[in-house]
User: Which sequence fits this backbone?
């Protein structure tokens, strides 16, 4: 009983207020005149900012049109002596605007908060219902006796049912678009969306309250007039808080789809849960993961499907060989957690072909001789540190010096000397044992390091090189030859440089009649 009395009191108060807005009164004309004027101002303001391309306002301009038409006919009816009652053309234009405004408002919000374009087909689909309702009303105007029928209970027409149901669908869709922003965008980008929610809510409240309570048509029009002003004002303000491009560019899906890297989320158990979908051409960027696929299995699948190999420099880099050449991908792991608790991992897969190629180039300069492609002195010193361990003993050290290189350089020129050096080093590389390390440590000085080897391996290697070189008779430098020396480091109690000097002394004896040499293979202690 108390609830019924309260409802009656509220309805009485609403009725009393609505009486102040009698159709054709001064207050009535001022209110709807303001609505009409505001819509015209925002219409031209929308055209101005659209021409400046500062924000996307085309849909905003379209929203202003039916609101202006709606306000004009409500205002102009009493002013111009038009009849706004049911079944008149003035009421037809008012109803047509009523049907269109919610849909156009929703499409405007869609354009502001979603990076997915609104296609013509989508627009048509969303405007089918209001256009259908407008056509029904137009038929009723042209053929007053025509009755489209009613549903089974009461006198609620099919048109009214469609209108109410469609309004609910549009309102829900508008709210979902805005709520999606809260999931997709960071907090500082949500202020404009709050304004859009206010715009939707103003119209929803105006329609809902006028339907739930016993409102006169005049009172409903007043409520909608206030709601439309609030809606258009908040939509306009939202432009300058964060325009659509700024909102869209912070969208999670938009950012993920625009990444040049592949991002994969992995559970603590190592199963793939989510990833950004990328368009791929053949094996580039990479095959798509599968939901709950173990990450090691996915990595193995990449290697098998794309003819890939693991980089010898870093296990986190894969070399993918395709028709266009080689591509290198870096797999970087990041922990996903909060407040000290780890929930999973994020794997970032980025193509590093250019940077890796630069790294390889720098590495080649630092560790390879550009003329002969053998390792250089820097690489030699690093390798001595690596092989000087118990597991590589005995360690065979072979040193060589290319004969007559200085004479060829002085008499024939450095181009001929380079040819001699390249010829010799090609043969040395070809005949070197599989696990041997070969370096050019000086102008004409070569060194070979072979773990777990002894003098017999040295003799076989030197004999193979000498035999091949003896078969060469170049018209510019004749038969190339190398003076050799070798020694073996049997255990770590020996000093590497002492063993090297022993090998170098043997080589010196073989070469001492050619020219003096320096001991370049001695490494820093």
Assistant:
């Amino acid at each position: 009983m108390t609830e019924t009395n309260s409802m009656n009191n509220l309805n009485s108060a609403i009725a009393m207020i609505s009486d102040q807005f009698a159709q054709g009164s001064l207050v009535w004309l001022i209110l709807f005149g303001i609505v009409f004027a505001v819509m015209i101002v925002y219409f031209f303001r929308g055209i101005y900012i659209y021409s400046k391309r500062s924000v996307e306002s085309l849909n905003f301009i379209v929203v202003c049109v039916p609101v202006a038409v709606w306000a004009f006919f409500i205002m102009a009816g009493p002013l111009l002596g038009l009849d706004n009652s049911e079944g008149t053309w003035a009421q037809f234009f008012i109803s047509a605007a009523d049907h269109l405004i919610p849909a156009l408002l929703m499409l405007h919000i869609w354009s502001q908060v979603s990076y997915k374009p609104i296609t013509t087909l989508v627009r048509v689909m969303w405007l089918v219902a209001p256009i259908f309702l407008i056509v029904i009303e137009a038929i009723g105007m042209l053929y007053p006796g025509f009755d489209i029928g009613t549903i089974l209970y009461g006198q609620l027409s099919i048109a009214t049912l469609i209108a109410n149901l469609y309004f609910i669908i549009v309102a829900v869709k508008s709210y979902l678009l805005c709520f999606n922003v809260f999931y997709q965008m960071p907090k500082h980008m949500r202020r404009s969306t709050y304004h859009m929610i206010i715009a939707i809510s103003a119209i929803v409240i105006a329609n809902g309250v006028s339907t739930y309570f016993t409102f006169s048509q005049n009172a409903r029009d007043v409520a909608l007039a206030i709601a439309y002003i609030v809606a258009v004002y908040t939509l306009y303000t939202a432009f300058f808080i964060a325009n659509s491009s700024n909102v869209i560019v912070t969208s999670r899906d938009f950012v993920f789809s625009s990444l040049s890297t592949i991002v994969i989320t992995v559970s603590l158990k190592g199963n793939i849960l989510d990833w950004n979908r990328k368009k791929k051409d053949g094996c580039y960027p990479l095959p798509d993961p599968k939901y709950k696929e173990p990450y090691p299995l996915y990595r193995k699948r990449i290697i098998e499907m794309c003819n890939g190999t693991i980089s010898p420099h870093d296990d986190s880099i894969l070399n993918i060989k395709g028709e266009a050449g080689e591509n290198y991908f870096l797999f970087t792991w990041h922990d996903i957690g909060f407040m000290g608790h780890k929930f999973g991992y994020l794997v970032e897969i980025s193509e590093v072909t250019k940077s890796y190629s630069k790294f390889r180039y720098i590495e080649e300069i630092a560790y390879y001789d550009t003329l002969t492609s053998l390792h250089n002195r820097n690489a030699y010193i690093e390798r001595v540190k690596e092989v000087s361990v118990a597991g590589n003993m005995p360690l065979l050290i072979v040193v060589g010096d290319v004969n007559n290189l200085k004479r060829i350089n002085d008499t024939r020129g450095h181009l001929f000397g380079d040819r001699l050096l390249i010829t010799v080093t090609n043969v040395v590389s070809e005949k070197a044992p599989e696990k041997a390390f070969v370096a050019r440590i000086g102008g004409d000085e070569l060194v070979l390091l072979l773990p777990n080897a002894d003098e017999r391996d040295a003799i076989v290697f030197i004999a193979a090189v000498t035999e091949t070189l003896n078969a060469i008779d170049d018209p510019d430098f004749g038969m190339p030859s190398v003076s050799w020396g070798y020694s073996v480091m049997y255990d770590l109690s020996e000093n590497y440089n002492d063993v090297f000097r022993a090998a170098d002394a043997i080589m010196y004896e073989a070469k001492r009649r050619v020219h003096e040499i320096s001991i370049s293979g001695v490494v820093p202690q």
User: Anything to note?
Assistant: Residues 184 and 251 are 5 Å apart (CA to CA). The longest strand covers residues 325-338. The chain has three domains: 2-249, 259-354, 368-511. Residues 259-354 form a domain with the Beta-Lactamase fold (CATH 3.30.450).
